[in-house]
Amino acid sequence: MTAERRAPARIEFPNDLEIVLTREFDAPIQLVFDVLTKPEHVRKTIAPYGEEVKTCSIDLRVGGDYHFVFVADDGREMSFRGTFLEVEPPTRTVETWLFDGWPGVEAVETVELREADGVTKLTHRLAFRDQAGRNHMTGTDGLEANYDNVENLLRSLLDPKETVSG
Fold first, then answer.
1. pTM score above 0.85
2. What distances in angstroms separate CA 137 from CA 13, 85, 102, one per listed residue?
C-alpha cells in the first residue's frame, strides 16, 4: 500500500431510504473480506474513534448473527446487531442492521467487494425499511471512520512496519 490514503469514502443518498458508501483499498479482496468479517480484525476497526469494544461476535453464515458493542466517550454503550441473509466470500455479505439506540429502525446492509489490479473497491449500502428510519442517519462520520480504521489495519497487515493508529 502507498503511504498516502486513497481518496476518501464517497457517500451518496440515491433515494429517501438508502445510503451508499464507496471506498477503495490497496489490498487484495480476500484480505479486505477477512478484515471486514473476522472478529480478531473487526474488534480493531468497528469502534470508529478507538472506543473500548466490549462485544464482537460474528457467526458468518446465512442465518448466523453478529453483535458489536462499544462504549462511547460519554459512557453509553453502542450496540449493533443483525443476522446474515447472504454470505458469498470474498465478494458479498447481506445482513439485517439494527442499532439498539434507535428502537424500531431497521435496515438491510449490503457490502460488496470487487478487485481490479490489486485495488479492492468496497460498496456499502444501507437500505432502511422506511423514511423515518433513514432520517435517523443524519451523519456518516462514524461509518467513514470505521473504514479509516480498516485502511490502517490493512496497511499494518500488508507492511508489518506500519503501525495501526486509531
1. yes
2. 11, 22, 10
- The rounded distance, in Å, linking the Cα atoms of 83 and 57 is 11
Structure confidence at residue 1 (pLDDT): 40
Query: How are strands ordered across the β-sheet holding 92-99?
Result: 10-12, 18-25, 119-128, 106-116, 92-99, 77-88, 65-71, 52-58
The reported pLDDT for the residue numbered 136 is: 82
Phi, psi of 58 (to 5 degrees): -140, 120
Tell me the pLDDT tens digit for each residue of 102-138: 888 999 999 999 999 999 999 999 999 998 888 888 7
Between CA 141 and CA 57 the distance in angstroms is 23
CA dist., res. 148 & res. 48, Å (int):
8
Minimal CA–CA distance to 103: which of 145, 76, 70, 133? 133
Tell me how far apart the alpha carbons of residues 64 and 95 are, in angstroms, rounded to a whole number: 9
Grid coordinates belonging to 11: 457517500
